[in-house]
Design goal:
single chain, 293 residues, alpha+beta, five-stranded antiparallel beta sheet, 10 strands, elongated
Length: 293
């Protein structure tokens, strides 16, 4: 007989808790998100910036056919990571909820209200048998008047508001950049540059104009806008130049440190030789009177 696995049976259905209170199917859905490409969201005083990495697995794939950023309403957008098919279903649901609110109450839905409705749907799929959780996470950003909002939704249905956040495979590297460099008073241009810097770190420098997609929702226009290929290319070129200059500065600093270390070693050797010569001359001076006697 084969020995029973420690978690055997507890990951067979979404409605079964393990003895330590875990839902393994939800954790597996989170793993699907972690295996996805990196998506970022940044708040600024002028609006929201969404940046995604949409690298292709083959040069034969049309890059424009890969969608990771979606428009939900005139003033709301979302970036996704994880299973694209699941994300598409969630985006469709978000668009419907936005239109229902507009028809029912004759006013646009709040960004926070829309994020909660999507999370309610996600949570419902963790509590019923015969279904599985959505293997996708969303970063939902938008503006309501002068208010700028940015939310991250988890496959479990959890909802957290962020100033800057990331999902996908490069989340740790991107969040480290945000923790170090984020400024609440940044402009939209600065937010785009910060998002590209974080994506550059998350992809280990494999960022090109064909692998990046950027969208902004501005407070001034109250409108969602996806940047054109020419605009993205301009930002990516500036990113590569900026990182090349930083690498050159680091190399110069390393070279200067090596030179200073070598100079210190030479000085130490010269000091040692000088002390040895002094010791030898002292010994000769001590021996000289003995010879005369």
């Amino acid at each position: 007989m084969q020995p029973l696995q420690q978690n055997a049976g507890y990951d067979r259905a979404i409605t079964v808790f393990s003895p330590d209170g875990r839902l393994f199917q939800v954790e597996y859905a989170r793993e699907a998100v972690k295996r996805g490409t990196t998506s970022l969201g940044i708040k600024s005083k002028e609006g929201v910036v969404l940046v995604v990495d949409k690298r292709t697995t083959s040069r034969l794939v049309e890059a424009k056919s890969i969608e990771k950023i979606f428009q939900i309403d005139n003033y709301i957008g979302a970036a996704t990571s994880g299973l694209v098919a699941d994300a598409r279903a969630l985006i469709e649901r978000a668009r419907i909820e936005s239109q229902i609110n507009r028809i029912t109450y004759n006013e646009p839905i709040l960004v926070s209200g829309l994020a909660k409705k999507i999370c309610d749907m996600k949570q419902l799929y963790t509590q019923n048998g015969g279904v599985r959780p959505f293997g996708s996470a969303l970063i939902i950003g938008g503006v309501n008047g002068d208010s700028v909002r940015l939310f991250e939704t988890d496959p479990s249905g959890a909802l957290i508001e962020y100033k800057a956040t990331a999902i996908g495979s490069g989340v740790q590297a991107a969040m480290a950049v945000f923790e170090e460099n984020y400024d609440e008073e940044c402009t939209l241009e600065e937010a785009i540059e910060l998002g590209l810097d974080a994506l550059y770190e998350a992809t280990n420098g494999a960022t090109t104009e064909n692998s990046v997609e950027i969208a902004v929702i501005e407070v001034a226009t109250q409108a969602y806008r996806k940047l054109s290929d020419e605009e993205v290319a301009k930002y990516v070129e500036a990113l590569i130049e900026r990182n090349a200059e930083e690498e050159e500065e680091e190399e110069v600093e390393e070279d200067s440190e090596e030179v200073s270390e070598e100079a210190e070693e030479v000085d130490e050797e010269e000091d040692e030789e000088a002390t040895e010569n002094e010791d030898e001359s002292d010994e000769e001076a001590e021996d000289a009177p003995d010879e005369e006697e």
